[in-house]
Amino acid sequence: MKNTLKKGYQFRRILRTGNAFRGTSFRAVYRLNSLGMIRLGFSLSAKSGNSVKRNLMRRRLRHLAEEEGKRTGADVVIMPEGKLSTNNWAIVRKDFMEMLVTIEEKGKNRRKIQIRKSNETTDQ
Fold first, then answer.
1. The domain 8-123 is classified under which CATH number: 3.30.230.10, 3.40.50.720, 3.30.420.40, 2.60.40.2550?
2. 67 in helix, strand or coil?
3. Per-residue pLDDT tens for 20-50?
4. pTM over 0.90, yes/no
């Protein structure tokens, strides 16, 4: 399975039911999944920069997701803030890492709730 989101229904589901993350260089909406891997989708308009800059951003974030997001199970839609030419790669990387930490914390909390619920049902 490819680690990208391409279909419109996938984007709509995440944007409708997901949680938001806002960094200095991009906004993201994420939804936890049970696949155990991160899948990225991008919403980049032509106003954010030319195709070379948009594709560079996509490639860099996909590479970062492959390196750092292996243990993160989530679907993420990324939308840049402002022009891509004004974004510093170090800031984008820092924002992405903060987003991963936020998603992982959300996933841990979800697992704790599921364990607690399963224990409550077996106790009765």
1. 3.30.230.10
2. helix
3. 999 988 999 999 988 888 999 999 888 888 8
4. no
